[in-house]
Design brief:
Length: about 800
C-alpha cells in the first residue's frame, strides 16, 4: 500500500483505495469509453495565441481538380505477375478505340479511375504478354494470355471528407510519373546509368486534407541504389578497401551482412542466368574452411574445392561467402566473385551526401512541381496548382527558463535559439559513481589514450556536480569485438570478486567502441542491461581521441541521468506555472513500438516501450519498461493484462507498474495522465486508440475501482514530409544561423487538419539540412487542454 495524497479528491478522481495487490476482474464497461465513437475525431478547441507572430512557408500546394471521378472495378484472369504491366499493355492496345481516348489511372490492384466515363459500363479485353514466370524458371520463352474485365463501380464526388476520393487522387498523382520514375513506397526516383552505388534523388508526393482545402505535399527524397555490378566490387565500395584475399574482421562482416541483406543476385556460372538468389547474410568462415552444401557426393569438400572441381574456378580462400536462398534450397553458400547484383535496387547503406541548405531545398521542390501542370494525366483530370510554397501564419513560443544547482555561478538560464551549455552551471542533482571500470574495444585507441580520456571524463563529471570517484575498480582492459558476451561476463565476474565482499555493485561501465562497429553497440547494451544489470556508457573512438570539453560535458550529463541524478528542471515547474501539470499531480507517459528490420529473422518480435515520469511537479525523471509482442503488431499489448491464477485474476501491465512506481516515488496519486504515443498507420488509428485508452482505464480501475484520472492521448508523428521554411531569408531575426526556422516555431493553421486538434512544432534548432517539425495530433482529451496550454507544455517538455 502506498502513501495517499492528502488532496485525494482533486480533479480526475473520486477518492478511494489505491493499492498494488491483487484485484478482482476489471469490468470492461468503463463510462468514459462509452463516449468513444470510432471515426470521430477530437475537435480543435482554438488556435495558439502565445508567443510572437511568425510567417513561414510550407511545402504544400493548393490543388484545383475535377470534382467528379469514375471508379471501375478491374478483374484480371489468370492472376498476373505484374498487374500494372497488363494494364499498360491494355491502354496501348485499346486506348484510342474501345477506351474512348481516356487516360485512366490504375492502383495496381482492383480499381481504375477516369475523369469521364468509358463508352461502356462493363466490357472484357484480351491482353497478351511474354511469360515472365517461364523466364524466371529457365523454361523456353512463351506468351501468356489474360482476360481483363472492366466494370463501372461508382462515381465519386470530390468532397473534402471523402476517404475514397483521397485514395483515388493519390492513385492519379502516382500515375503521372510511373513510366519515367522508379516507385519506392510513396517516392519516385530516376535511375542513374553506370555501375555501383548511386545516390538517387527523387521526390515524395501525397495529397492531404487541410484548412485551405486539398493540398499536395511534395518533398525531396534521397535513396541509395545499387546498379548491376559484381558483388565483390560492391563490397569493396562498402568497406572502402580493395578485396584481395584478406579475411574480414568482425565489424566488416557485420556491416556487409546488414547492407546486403535481402538483395537479389545472379550466379554467373549457372546456365540459367535469369535465376535469382536472395542474400541472407555472410558466413563467419572463409571459403577454404567452409563445407559446401551444394556437394551431394558426401565427400565433405570445401567451397574452394567444390568450385575448382565443378567449375574450374579458383576463388578467394579467406574471404567469406554469401549466404543465399532460393525456392529450391533454404541455404546455399556462393563466393562473392561469382555473383552479380541482378537489378537496380535500393539498399540500407546510406551514402554520405551533403545536407541541402533550406533555401536550396526549397528551390529543388519548386523545380519538381514545374512538370505537373503540363503532364497529360494532370490535364486529363484537371489538376493544376500554383508554383509557390504555401504562406503560413505561425508563432514562436518562448523557451522555458532552466533551473540549475544553486552551488553554480549560473543558477537560472534562458536558452537562446534552442541551445545552452553547462559553462558556470552545475547539475540540479548530481548522481554518485563510486565504483566504475572501462573496457576498450577500439584497436586504434592506445592504452594511454583511453586512460587519459577516462581521467578527463571523471574530472568533467565532478566539475558538473557529480560525486565521481577517480580510480576504476581494475585497470583499463583492452578487448576484441568478436567475443563480446564471454568477455563482458568474464570481466564482470572479476569486478564483482572485488566488490562483493565490500557489499558494493559496479555503478558504471565505460565502453570505448570503434567508429564502425556494426551491431557491437546493440550487443553491449543488451548484455549489460538484460544479462548483467549494468549501467553502461558507450563512447566512439573518434571522440575519445579528440577529448573535446563539449563532448565530455554531454557524456557527463548522460551518465548523471543514468545513475539517478537530475541535470536541470524547468523553472515553471518549480514555481508552479506548468500548464495543467503544476496544479494537479500528473504523470506523463511516452510510448512506442519498434518493429524488426526486414532482414531480421521471422521469429524476431516487435518491441513495445513505455516510459513514464517518476517525479512531480518537476517531471524530469523517467523510468522505462519494454515488452516483446507479436511481430509488426502496432497496438501495445502489454499496457494492461490479467492472469488467471486459479483463485482469481491478478492484473498487471506497464501502465499499472508505472502508476505504482510514481506513487511510491512521489507520495502522490496521479490525477492526470498525459500519454504521448508514437504514431500508427491511419487505418489503425481508431483501433489503437480504443484498445490503449481501454487499457489505461482498466489499469487505473485495477488499483481501485473508483480511481479514474483524466486522460489525454496525443499521437506524435515524426515520419512525415511536411517541411517549414523561413518566410524571408534576408531577415536575420526570423531565421536560425543554418537557414532553418527558429526553435519554438509552432503552426496550427493553413496546413493542419480543418477540424482535428493537431499542430506542427519545431522545438529545437536544426543545425544541418532542413528542420522537420513534429506533428502532434490529440485523439482524446479529458483534461480540456486549450491550444496554448498543450503547445506550451509540449514545447517545455522538449527541454527536460
Amino acid at each position: 500500500m502506498v502513501r495517499k495524497n492528502k488532496n485525494r479528491h482533486s480533479s480526475g478522481g473520486r477518492g478511494g483505495r489505491i493499492g498494488s495487490g491483487p484485484s478482482s476482474t476489471v469490468s470492461c464497461s468503463i463510462p468514459e469509453l462509452q463516449k468513444f465513437v470510432p471515426g470521430e475525431s477530437l475537435k480543435r478547441p482554438g488556435f495558439v495565441s502565445a508567443g510572437e507572430s511568425y510567417i513561414v512557408k510550407a511545402n504544400h500546394f493548393k490543388l484545383t481538380y475535377n470534382e467528379t471521378l469514375c471508379r471501375y472495378h478491374v478483374l484480371i484472369d489468370p492472376k498476373p505477375t505484374s498487374a500494372g504491366d497488363v494494364m499498360i499493355q491494355l491502354a496501348k492496345l485499346y486506348g484510342q478505340s474501345r477506351l474512348g481516348g481516356r487516360l485512366p489511372a490504375y492502383d495496381g490492384k482492383k480499381s481504375l479511375y477516369t475523369s469521364r466515363p468509358f463508352p461502356f459500363t462493363c466490357e472484357a479485353f484480351k491482353v497478351t504478354l511474354p511469360d515472365q514466370e517461364n523466364i524466371l524458371c529457365g523454361l523456353p520463352r512463351g506468351k501468356r494470355h489474360f482476360r481483363v474485365q472492366i466494370t463501372l463501380d461508382k462515381v465519386l464526388f470530390g468532397r473534402i471528407d471523402s476517404e475514397e476520393f483521397y485514395q483515388a487522387f493519390n492513385t492519379i498523382l502516382r500515375e503521372l510519373f510511373l513510366g519515367r520514375y522508379c516507385l519506392v513506397g510513396r517516392s519516385f526516383y530516376k535511375s542513374q546509368p553506370g555501375e555501383g552505388l548511386k545516390n538517387c534523388c527523387g521526390f515524395y508526393q501525397r495529397i492531404q486534407n487541410t484548412q485551405m482545402g486539398i493540398s499536395l505535399n511534395i518533398d525531396i527524397s534521397c535513396k541509395p541504389f545499387i546498379n548491376p555490378l559484381p558483388v565483390i566490387n560492391l563490397v569493396a565500395l562498402l568497406l572502402n578497401r580493395d578485396i584481395s584475399d584478406d579475411p574480414f574482421d568482425f565489424c566488416e562482416r557485420l556491416k556487409v551482412s546488414k547492407d546486403l541483406c535481402d538483395v537479389e543476385v545472379n550466379f554467373t556460372l549457372e546456365k540459367n542466368a535469369d535465376k535469382k538468389y536472395r542474400i541472407t547474410g555472410l558466413t563467419s568462415q572463409g571459403s577454404s574452411q567452409l563445407p559446401c552444401p551444394c556437394d551431394d557426393s558426401g565427400t565433405g569438400k570445401t567451397v574452394v574445392e567444390y568450385f575448382k572441381e565443378t567449375y574450374r574456378r579458383t576463388i578467394r580462400s579467406r574471404v567469406p561467402c554469401l549466404k543465399v536462398r532460393d525456392q529450391e534450397k533454404p541455404t546455399t553458400y556462393l563466393p562473392m566473385e561469382v555473383c552479380e547484383i541482378s537489378d537496380a535496387k535500393q539498399i540500407s547503406y546510406l551514402l554520405s551526401v551533403a545536407c541541402q541548405h533550406p533555401m536550396d531545398h526549397e528551390k529543388t521542390i519548386l523545380q519538381t512541381v514545374n512538370p505537373y501542370n503540363e503532364d497529360p494525366h494532370a490535364k486529363e483530370f484537371g489538376i493544376t496548382f500554383e508554383n509557390k510554397l504555401t504562406i503560413v501564419k505561425g508563432r514562436v513560443l518562448p523557451p522555458p527558463v532552466l533551473k540549475f544547482n544553486d552551488q553554480g555561478k549560473v543558477k537560472e538560464f534562458l536558452p537562446k535559439v534552442g541551445k545552452w551549455n553547462m559553462r558556470l552551471k552545475q547539475m540540479v542533482k548530481g548522481g554518485e559513481v563510486n565504483t566504475w571500470a572501462c573496457i576498450n574495444f577500439a584497436s586504434d585507441i592506445t592504452h594511454a589514450a583511453a586512460v587519459a580520456f577516462c581521467d578527463e571524463l571523471a574530472v568533467m563529471c565532478v566539475i558538473s556536480g557529480m560525486n565521481f570517484k577517480g580510480d576504476p575498480v581494475l585497470p583499463l582492459v583492452n578487448a576484441k569485438p568478436n567475443h563480446v558476451r564471454p568477455f563482458l561476463k568474464k570481466h564482470y565476474q572479476r569486478f564483482m570478486e572485488i566488490l562483493r565482499p565490500l557489499h558494493k555493485e559496479l555503478d558504471l561501465l565505460i565502453v570505448i567502441l570503434p567508429d564502425k562497429n556494426g551491431t557491437l553497440y546493440g550487443d553491449i547494451k543488451r548484455i549489460c542491461e538484460t544479462d548483467l544489470g549494468l549501467v553502461s556508457q558507450c563512447c566512439l573512438a573518434k571522440h575519445v581521441l579528440k577529448m573535446k570539453p563539449q563532448y565530455l560535458t554531454n557524456i557527463a550529463l548522460k551518465i548523471n541521468m543514468k545513475v539517478g541524478g537530475r541535470n536541470t528542471v524547468l523553472l515553471d515547474a518549480v514555481v508552479g506555472n506548468l500548464p495543467r501539470v503544476s496544479n494537479t499531480p500528473t504523470i506523463i507517459f511516452g510510448a512506442d513500438v519498434s518493429h524488426p528490420h526486414h532482414g531480421e529473422g521471422r521469429s524476431s518480435p516487435s518491441i513495445a516501450a513505455v516510459v513514464a515520469s517518476q517525479d512531480w511537479p518537476e517531471v524530469t525523471n523517467y523510468a522505462g519498461l519494454v515488452r516483446p509482442q507479436a511481430r509488426h503488431e502496432e497496438i501495445i499489448q502489454g499496457l494492461f493484462n490479467e492472469n488467471d491464477c486459479g483463485s482469481g485474476c491478478i492484473s498487471g501491465g506497464m501502465i499499472k507498474e508505472h502508476l505504482i512506481s510514481f506513487m511510491r516515488s512521489t507520495g502522490h496519486i496521479p490525477r492526470r495522465i498525459i500519454f504521448y504515443r508514437d504514431v500508427v498507420s491511419k487505418g489503425r488509428l481508431n483501433m489503437v486508440l480504443e484498445h490503449e485508452l481501454s487499457a489505461i482505464k482498466k489499469a487505473c480501475a485495477s488499483l481501485d475501482p473508483i480511481y479514474n484520472p483524466q486522460v489525454t492521448i496525443i499521437m506524435v508523428q515524426k515520419q512525415h514530409h511536411t517541411r517549414l521554411f523561413a518566410g524571408n531569408y534576408g531577415v536575420g531575426s526570423t531565421i536560425f544561423q543554418s537557414g532553418n526556422v527558429l526553435p519554438g516555431t509552432v503552426v496550427d493553421k493553413e496546413i493542419c487538419h480543418p477540424t482535428d486538434f493537431d499542430f506542427y512544432l519545431c522545438s529545437h534548432a536544426g543545425t544541418k539540412g532542413v528542420s522537420r517539425p513534429v506533428r502532434y495530433h490529440v485523439l482524446w482529451d479529458e483534461n480540456n487542454f486549450t491550444a496554448n496550454a498543450l503547445q506550451i507544455l509540449t514545447n517545455h517538455l522538449c527541454y527536460t
